[in-house]
Design a protein that fits this description.
alpha/beta; TIM Barrel; 10 helices; 8 strands; 46% helix; binds 1,3-dihydroxyacetonephosphate
């Protein structure tokens, strides 16, 4: 069932759980994530970032993601992650994505506000929701840059949400994209301040490598969407390597099955940590 992300996040706000937003690059990853969601009766978000379209063209993977969501027995939102250009954001909306992110976190605040407002106006025409980001999550979505972490200012978060009317806000509290060099320790003092001042669901990027107890504190304190990308890709690679090492790959279809399994195992693990299992029936 294809759902607007707002329905999922608003329901999560009533409890202490969060929805996993899993980055996918091909059909096997989509199938693996949805298998985990259906088996555990969890709502879930499928997403792809603009930087990944070099490998997975939006006009091909986008309709696949939307079709898979419609075909699922649990609520699934389809999200365009880290949108950088209006051209691609509009294309995702045309395809039927139910939410888009405009990532202006690298821009001066005023410019980020203006461009986010334009995205909100555009998405409204499609009945879709918008996520935006202020502060700087470290690293970069495709691992190509070493962006330094710059924690979100709670005062700026208030101004940003009031001005833009976004549906979800991604914040920087010591989190970073990719595999962490050291175990991250998040700034729960900043999260607490933002949560008490800002009345929208909060989003945590850079989910790979965050400790289960830190995820728990996040979902109990306003983080309602958690993005996982690198962990999915790593899990798929490991599953394929293991299947080869165990002599289980006799032909192409075994390789495909190992990919589905890798995405499934990773999604299952995070769904449990996010306490999302069984929540489909609430939506
Ligand atoms: P990771 O690759 O660290 O899981 O980050 C995912 C993400 O935030 C995608 O937007």
């Amino acid at each position: 069932m294809l759902y607007n992300i707002k329905a999922l996040l608003e329901k999560a706000r009533e409890g202490r759980w969060a929805v996993g937003s899993f980055s996918v690059a091909n059909m096997e990853m989509v199938l693996g994530v949805l298998k985990a969601a259906e088996e555990t009766q969890s709502p879930v978000i499928l997403q792809i970032a603009e930087v990944r379209l070099k490998q997975s063209p939006l006009e091909i993977i986008g309709p696949l993601m939307v079709a898979a969501a419609k075909n699922a027995s649990v609520p699934v939102a389809v999200h365009f992650d880290h949108g950088l250009t209006f051209e691609k954001i509009k294309q995702a909306l045309e395809i039927g994505f139910t939410s888009v992110m405009f990532d202006g976190s690298h821009l001066p605040l005023e410019e980020n506000i203006e461009k986010t407002k334009e995205t909100v106006a555009l998405a409204l025409r499609y009945g879709a929701a918008v996520e935006a980001e202020i502060g700087c999550v470290g690293g970069s979505e495709d691992g190509s840059e070493e962006i330094a972490i710059n924690c979100t200012s709670p005062a700026q978060a208030v101004e940003f949400v009031e001005e833009t009317q976004v549906d979800a806000l991604a914040i920087a509290i010591g989190n970073a994209h990719g595999n962490y060099k050291q175990t991250p320790h998040l700034r729960f003092d900043i999260l607490e301040e933002i949560r008490t001042k800002v009345d929208v669901p909060l989003v945590l990027h850079g989910g790979t490598g965050i400790l289960p107890e830190e995820f728990k504190k996040c979902r109990e304190n306003g983080i309602k969407k958690i993005n996982i990308a690198t962990a999915t890709f790593d899990s798929v690679q490991q599953s394929v390597k293991k299947a080869y090492a165990e002599g289980k790959i006799k032909g192409y279809y075994d390789l495909q099955a190992a990919e589905v399994e890798g995405a499934y195992v990773n999604a299952l693990k995070h769904i449990e940590i996010f306490d999302c299992a069984g929540k489909a029936q609430l939506i």
